[in-house]
Amino acid sequence: MKKLPDAQLELMLIIWDADRPVTRAEIEEKMDDSRDVLPNTVLALLSRLEKRGFVKKERDGKINHYSALVEREPYMKEASKGILKQMFQGSLKNFAAALYDGEELSEEDAKELMEFLESKVKR
């Protein structure tokens, strides 16, 4: 599964969060207000997502409803692994170092991270 471009990912996040079929207008309402996006742009992005197999379109009268065909968690897991491999040579240590470079890690965050890592260690 390929990583989605940011604009398509923004639409998918809206669709996943809705947890029901949504219309183009509903998607536009939820989009980042910092950008003016034309309805035709949203339709083009939805069309690309449909061609890639991420969403399906169902017509109800004159209105199209879009729903996710790809689930959020499997996509996020694959995308995260791709970023880890591509940008951090697959090293979780390098990734964590990049996140906290020069910043203090709270005791609570450190404890939570240690517990997570200990639960994942093969014994």
The chain-level mean pLDDT equals 91
What sequence of helices (H) and strands (E) makes up the elements?
HHHEEHHH
- Major β-sheet profile: 2 strands, antiparallel
SS strand fraction: 5-15%
Brief description of this entry?
This protein is mostly helical. It is 59% helix and 10% strand.
Q: Overview of this structure, please?
A:
This protein is mainly α and 123 residues long. It has helices spanning 6-18, 24-30, 39-51, 72-88, 92-100, 107-120, and strands at 55-60, 63-68. Helix 1 crosses helix 3 and helix 2 packs across helix 3. Helix content is 59%, strand content 10%. The protein folds into 2 domains: 6-68, Winged helix-like DNA-binding domain superfamily/Winged helix DNA-binding domain (Arc Repressor Mutant, subunit A, Orthogonal Bundle), CATH 1.10.10; 94-123. The mean pLDDT is 91. The protein is elongated, with a radius of gyration of 19 Å.
Label this structure with key terms:
mainly alpha, Arc Repressor Mutant, subunit A, 2 strands
List the helices and strands and how they pair.
Elements: H1 6-18, H2 24-30, H3 39-51, E1 55-60, E2 63-68, H4 72-88, H5 92-100, H6 107-120
Antiparallel strand pairs: 1-2
